[in-house]
Protein backbone atom coordinates (compact mmCIF):
# COMPACT_ATOMS: atom_id res chain seq x y z
CA UNK A 1 0.00 0.00 0.00
CA UNK A 2 1.37 3.44 -0.92
CA UNK A 3 2.13 6.24 1.53
CA UNK A 4 -0.65 8.36 0.03
CA UNK A 5 -3.14 5.55 0.65
CA UNK A 6 -1.94 5.24 4.26
CA UNK A 7 -2.49 8.95 4.77
CA UNK A 8 -5.89 8.80 3.08
CA UNK A 9 -6.95 5.83 5.25
CA UNK A 10 -5.90 7.71 8.39
CA UNK A 11 -8.47 10.40 7.56
CA UNK A 12 -11.28 8.04 6.56
CA UNK A 13 -11.93 6.87 10.12
CA UNK A 14 -14.01 9.28 12.16
CA UNK A 15 -12.62 8.10 15.52
CA UNK A 16 -8.99 8.73 14.67
CA UNK A 17 -8.45 12.41 15.54
CA UNK A 18 -5.13 11.98 17.34
CA UNK A 19 -3.52 10.14 14.44
CA UNK A 20 -5.00 12.63 11.99
CA UNK A 21 -3.49 15.61 13.81
CA UNK A 22 -0.08 13.94 13.90
CA UNK A 23 -0.24 12.88 10.25
CA UNK A 24 -1.28 16.37 9.20
CA UNK A 25 1.65 17.98 11.03
CA UNK A 26 4.15 15.48 9.61
CA UNK A 27 2.72 15.80 6.09
CA UNK A 28 3.04 19.59 6.13
CA UNK A 29 6.61 19.29 7.44
CA UNK A 30 7.64 16.91 4.65
CA UNK A 31 5.79 18.89 1.97
CA UNK A 32 7.59 22.11 2.92
CA UNK A 33 10.96 20.33 2.80
CA UNK A 34 10.16 19.01 -0.68
CA UNK A 35 9.05 22.45 -1.86
CA UNK A 36 12.18 24.06 -0.42
CA UNK A 37 14.28 21.56 -2.39
CA UNK A 38 12.30 22.23 -5.57
CA UNK A 39 12.73 25.99 -5.15
CA UNK A 40 16.48 25.51 -4.61
CA UNK A 41 16.93 23.30 -7.68
CA UNK A 42 14.89 25.75 -9.74
CA UNK A 43 17.12 28.63 -8.70
CA UNK A 44 14.28 30.56 -7.06
CA UNK A 45 15.33 30.26 -3.40
CA UNK A 46 14.36 33.89 -2.86
CA UNK A 47 10.71 33.01 -3.49
CA UNK A 48 10.53 30.43 -0.70
CA UNK A 49 10.02 33.01 2.10
CA UNK A 50 6.98 34.24 0.16
CA UNK A 51 5.55 30.73 0.39
CA UNK A 52 6.25 30.54 4.12
CA UNK A 53 4.45 33.83 4.59
CA UNK A 54 1.25 31.98 3.65
CA UNK A 55 1.48 29.62 6.64
CA UNK A 56 3.56 31.29 9.38
CA UNK A 57 2.06 33.80 11.81
CA UNK A 58 3.59 37.28 11.63
CA UNK A 59 3.68 39.64 14.60
CA UNK A 60 3.25 42.53 12.14
CA UNK A 61 -0.42 43.46 12.20
CA UNK A 62 -0.56 44.63 8.54
CA UNK A 63 1.05 41.37 7.38
CA UNK A 64 -1.30 39.30 9.55
CA UNK A 65 -4.38 41.13 8.26
CA UNK A 66 -3.34 40.20 4.72
CA UNK A 67 -2.94 36.56 5.82
CA UNK A 68 -5.64 35.99 8.49
CA UNK A 69 -5.68 32.21 7.93
CA UNK A 70 -2.22 32.04 9.52
CA UNK A 71 -4.00 32.42 12.88
CA UNK A 72 -4.40 28.64 12.57
CA UNK A 73 -2.04 27.37 9.86
CA UNK A 74 1.05 28.23 11.92
CA UNK A 75 0.05 25.52 14.41
CA UNK A 76 0.40 22.82 11.74
CA UNK A 77 3.74 24.11 10.44
CA UNK A 78 7.22 23.01 11.49
CA UNK A 79 10.22 24.20 9.50
CA UNK A 80 13.88 23.42 8.86
CA UNK A 81 14.25 26.80 7.13
CA UNK A 82 15.16 28.76 10.28
CA UNK A 83 16.64 26.16 12.64
CA UNK A 84 18.23 23.65 10.24
CA UNK A 85 17.17 20.06 9.68
CA UNK A 86 18.01 18.81 13.19
CA UNK A 87 16.26 21.76 14.85
CA UNK A 88 13.17 21.33 12.70
CA UNK A 89 12.95 17.58 13.28
CA UNK A 90 13.50 18.00 17.04
CA UNK A 91 10.76 20.64 17.22
CA UNK A 92 8.31 18.40 15.34
CA UNK A 93 9.23 15.23 17.25
CA UNK A 94 8.92 16.89 20.68
CA UNK A 95 5.49 18.28 19.86
CA UNK A 96 4.15 15.11 18.25
CA UNK A 97 5.38 12.81 21.03
CA UNK A 98 3.84 15.00 23.70
CA UNK A 99 0.61 15.25 21.75
CA UNK A 100 0.53 11.47 21.40
CA UNK A 101 1.14 10.77 25.09
CA UNK A 102 -1.20 13.38 26.54
CA UNK A 103 -3.64 13.38 23.61
CA UNK A 104 -4.39 9.72 24.25
CA UNK A 105 -5.67 10.64 27.71
CA UNK A 106 -7.88 13.44 26.38
CA UNK A 107 -9.18 11.22 23.58
CA UNK A 108 -9.86 8.34 25.96
CA UNK A 109 -11.72 10.38 28.58
CA UNK A 110 -13.30 13.18 26.55
CA UNK A 111 -13.43 11.87 22.99
CA UNK A 112 -12.01 12.84 19.61
CA UNK A 113 -14.05 16.00 19.12
CA UNK A 114 -12.88 17.58 22.35
CA UNK A 115 -9.29 16.66 21.55
CA UNK A 116 -9.55 18.53 18.25
CA UNK A 117 -11.33 21.41 19.98
CA UNK A 118 -8.49 21.68 22.51
CA UNK A 119 -5.89 21.70 19.75
CA UNK A 120 -7.67 24.36 17.71
CA UNK A 121 -8.55 26.58 20.68
CA UNK A 122 -5.04 26.22 22.13
CA UNK A 123 -3.56 27.29 18.79
CA UNK A 124 -5.90 30.28 18.59
CA UNK A 125 -5.19 31.31 22.19
CA UNK A 126 -1.44 31.12 21.54
CA UNK A 127 -1.81 33.19 18.37
CA UNK A 128 -3.83 35.89 20.11
CA UNK A 129 -1.29 36.16 22.97
CA UNK A 130 1.56 36.31 20.43
CA UNK A 131 -0.08 39.10 18.43
CA UNK A 132 -1.12 41.13 21.47
CA UNK A 133 2.35 40.85 23.00
CA UNK A 134 3.99 42.48 20.01
CA UNK A 135 1.35 45.19 19.78
CA UNK A 136 1.17 46.10 23.48
CA UNK A 137 4.40 45.13 25.26
CA UNK A 138 7.12 47.84 24.95
CA UNK A 139 9.85 45.20 25.03
CA UNK A 140 8.58 43.70 21.79
CA UNK A 141 8.15 46.88 19.77
CA UNK A 142 11.64 46.74 18.24
CA UNK A 143 11.07 43.15 17.09
CA UNK A 144 7.71 43.54 15.31
CA UNK A 145 7.83 41.44 12.18
CA UNK A 146 9.01 38.28 13.92
CA UNK A 147 7.13 35.15 12.88
CA UNK A 148 5.94 32.03 14.68
CA UNK A 149 5.38 28.43 13.60
CA UNK A 150 4.82 25.20 15.47
CA UNK A 151 2.19 23.30 17.42
CA UNK A 152 3.72 23.98 20.85
CA UNK A 153 0.92 26.24 22.08
CA UNK A 154 -1.77 23.80 20.96
CA UNK A 155 0.12 20.83 22.42
CA UNK A 156 0.70 22.58 25.74
CA UNK A 157 -3.05 23.22 25.88
CA UNK A 158 -3.56 19.45 25.61
CA UNK A 159 -0.87 18.73 28.21
CA UNK A 160 -2.28 21.17 30.79
CA UNK A 161 -5.82 19.99 30.06
CA UNK A 162 -4.82 16.39 30.73
CA UNK A 163 -3.00 17.40 33.92
CA UNK A 164 -6.04 19.40 35.09
CA UNK A 165 -8.38 16.52 34.32
CA UNK A 166 -6.18 13.73 35.74
CA UNK A 167 -3.50 15.39 37.92
CA UNK A 168 -2.38 12.19 39.64
CA UNK A 169 -2.14 10.06 36.51
CA UNK A 170 1.47 8.85 36.18
CA UNK A 171 3.85 8.40 33.25
CA UNK A 172 6.98 6.30 33.40
CA UNK A 173 9.89 8.60 32.52
CA UNK A 174 13.42 7.45 31.76
CA UNK A 175 15.75 8.12 34.72
CA UNK A 176 12.87 9.52 36.81
CA UNK A 177 10.52 6.55 37.11
CA UNK A 178 6.83 7.21 37.70
CA UNK A 179 5.95 10.91 37.57
CA UNK A 180 2.51 12.45 38.01
CA UNK A 181 1.53 14.38 34.90
CA UNK A 182 0.67 17.48 36.93
CA UNK A 183 4.40 17.86 37.63
CA UNK A 184 5.29 17.33 33.97
CA UNK A 185 2.85 20.08 32.99
CA UNK A 186 4.18 22.32 35.76
CA UNK A 187 7.78 21.95 34.55
CA UNK A 188 6.82 22.68 30.94
CA UNK A 189 4.93 25.82 31.99
CA UNK A 190 7.92 27.00 34.06
CA UNK A 191 10.24 26.37 31.10
CA UNK A 192 7.98 28.55 28.93
CA UNK A 193 7.96 31.31 31.56
CA UNK A 194 11.76 31.26 31.72
CA UNK A 195 11.89 31.19 27.92
CA UNK A 196 10.07 34.53 27.73
CA UNK A 197 13.40 36.09 28.73
CA UNK A 198 15.21 34.37 25.86
CA UNK A 199 15.33 34.65 22.09
CA UNK A 200 11.90 33.09 21.53
CA UNK A 201 9.94 35.42 23.82
CA UNK A 202 6.83 35.64 21.66
CA UNK A 203 6.73 31.89 21.08
CA UNK A 204 6.98 31.12 24.79
CA UNK A 205 4.21 33.59 25.56
CA UNK A 206 2.11 31.75 22.97
CA UNK A 207 2.87 28.50 24.81
CA UNK A 208 1.53 30.07 28.01
CA UNK A 209 -1.59 31.22 26.18
CA UNK A 210 -2.22 27.64 25.11
CA UNK A 211 -1.55 26.36 28.64
CA UNK A 212 -4.07 28.80 30.12
CA UNK A 213 -6.65 27.75 27.55
CA UNK A 214 -6.15 24.08 28.44
CA UNK A 215 -6.74 24.77 32.13
CA UNK A 216 -9.83 26.92 31.50
CA UNK A 217 -11.23 24.37 29.02
CA UNK A 218 -11.29 21.56 31.59
CA UNK A 219 -12.55 23.75 34.44
CA UNK A 220 -15.41 24.99 32.27
CA UNK A 221 -16.16 21.46 31.10
CA UNK A 222 -16.35 20.27 34.70
CA UNK A 223 -18.77 23.14 35.34
CA UNK A 224 -20.98 21.90 32.50
CA UNK A 225 -19.84 24.34 29.78
CA UNK A 226 -18.09 22.98 26.68
CA UNK A 227 -15.94 25.72 25.14
CA UNK A 228 -15.30 23.48 22.15
CA UNK A 229 -18.87 23.46 20.87
CA UNK A 230 -18.30 26.22 18.26
CA UNK A 231 -15.30 24.29 16.90
CA UNK A 232 -17.33 21.08 16.84
CA UNK A 233 -20.23 22.82 15.10
CA UNK A 234 -17.91 24.16 12.39
CA UNK A 235 -16.37 20.71 12.02
CA UNK A 236 -19.77 19.09 11.63
CA UNK A 237 -20.76 21.66 9.02
CA UNK A 238 -17.55 21.08 7.06
CA UNK A 239 -18.14 17.34 7.33
CA UNK A 240 -21.56 17.71 5.76
CA UNK A 241 -20.14 19.91 2.99
CA UNK A 242 -17.35 17.51 2.02
CA UNK A 243 -19.10 14.22 2.81
CA UNK A 244 -22.60 14.54 1.44
CA UNK A 245 -24.52 11.29 1.84
CA UNK A 246 -27.20 10.23 -0.66
CA UNK A 247 -30.80 10.48 0.46
CA UNK A 248 -32.15 7.10 1.52
CA UNK A 249 -35.76 6.08 1.17
CA UNK A 250 -37.56 4.09 3.80
CA UNK A 251 -41.19 3.14 4.14
CA UNK A 252 -43.23 4.96 6.80
CA UNK A 253 -44.28 1.73 8.49
CA UNK A 254 -40.73 0.44 8.82
CA UNK A 255 -39.54 3.75 10.25
CA UNK A 256 -42.38 3.83 12.75
CA UNK A 257 -41.74 0.30 13.94
CA UNK A 258 -38.02 0.86 14.38
CA UNK A 259 -38.21 4.23 16.17
CA UNK A 260 -38.87 2.90 19.65
CA UNK A 261 -36.25 0.14 19.48
CA UNK A 262 -33.61 2.41 17.94
CA UNK A 263 -34.19 5.08 20.57
CA UNK A 264 -33.78 2.56 23.37
CA UNK A 265 -30.61 1.15 21.81
CA UNK A 266 -29.18 4.63 21.34
CA UNK A 267 -29.74 5.44 24.98
CA UNK A 268 -28.05 2.19 25.94
CA UNK A 269 -25.01 2.93 23.77
CA UNK A 270 -24.76 6.63 24.58
CA UNK A 271 -21.67 7.25 26.74
CA UNK A 272 -22.91 10.78 27.51
CA UNK A 273 -25.88 9.50 29.47
CA UNK A 274 -25.68 10.18 33.19
CA UNK A 275 -24.49 6.96 34.90
CA UNK A 276 -26.55 5.47 37.72
CA UNK A 277 -25.13 5.54 41.23
CA UNK A 278 -24.97 1.73 41.19
CA UNK A 279 -22.73 1.86 38.11
CA UNK A 280 -20.48 4.43 39.76
CA UNK A 281 -20.19 2.28 42.91
CA UNK A 282 -19.20 -0.76 40.82
CA UNK A 283 -16.55 1.29 39.03
CA UNK A 284 -15.16 2.63 42.32
CA UNK A 285 -15.01 -0.92 43.71
CA UNK A 286 -13.07 -1.98 40.62
CA UNK A 287 -10.59 0.86 41.17
CA UNK A 288 -10.04 -0.18 44.79
CA UNK A 289 -9.40 -3.78 43.71
CA UNK A 290 -7.38 -3.39 40.51
CA UNK A 291 -6.41 0.27 40.18
CA UNK A 292 -7.56 3.06 37.91
CA UNK A 293 -5.73 1.74 34.84
CA UNK A 294 -7.88 -1.43 34.87
CA UNK A 295 -11.01 0.53 33.85
CA UNK A 296 -12.33 0.29 30.31
CA UNK A 297 -12.80 3.37 28.17
CA UNK A 298 -16.58 3.33 28.80
CA UNK A 299 -16.08 3.03 32.58
CA UNK A 300 -13.66 5.99 32.60
CA UNK A 301 -16.12 8.08 30.61
CA UNK A 302 -18.92 7.19 33.03
CA UNK A 303 -16.76 8.13 36.00
CA UNK A 304 -15.88 11.49 34.43
CA UNK A 305 -19.54 12.13 33.59
CA UNK A 306 -20.56 11.36 37.16
CA UNK A 307 -17.94 13.82 38.47
CA UNK A 308 -19.66 16.62 36.53
CA UNK A 309 -23.03 16.08 38.20
Cα(first) to Cα(last) distance is 47 Å
Looking at the structure, what is the overall shape? globular
The CATH architecture of the largest domain? Up-down Bundle
Helices, by number, come to: 14
The CATH class of the largest domain: Mainly Alpha
Describe this structure in words.
The model is unreliable at 245-272 (pLDDT under 50). This protein has 2 domains: 3-239, Rhomboid-like fold; 270-309, no CATH class. The strands form 2 sheets. A two-stranded antiparallel ribbon has the order 1-2. Strands 3-4 form a two-stranded antiparallel ribbon. A hairpin with a 3-residue loop joins strand 3 (170-173) and strand 4 (177-180). The longest helix has 27 residues, at 84-110. It is built from 14 helices and 4 strands. The protein is mostly helical.
Short description:
With 309 residues, the chain is mainly alpha-helical. The chain has helices at residues 3-12, 17-41, 48-52, 61-66, 70-73, 84-110, 112-136, 152-165, 181-195, 201-222, 229-242, 252-269, 277-290, 297-308; strands at residues 57-58, 147-148, 170-173, 177-180. The chain is globular, with a radius of gyration of 22 Å.
Write the layout of secondary structure elements.
Elements: H1 3-12, H2 17-41, H3 48-52, E1 57-58, H4 61-66, H5 70-73, H6 84-110, H7 112-136, E2 147-148, H8 152-165, E3 170-173, E4 177-180, H9 181-195, H10 201-222, H11 229-242, H12 252-269, H13 277-290, H14 297-308
Antiparallel strand pairs: 1-2, 3-4
Helix pairs in contact: 2-6, 6-7, 6-8, 7-8, 7-10, 8-9, 8-10, 9-10, 13-14
GO biological process, one term: proteolysis
Membrane topology: Multi-pass membrane protein
Subcellular location: Membrane
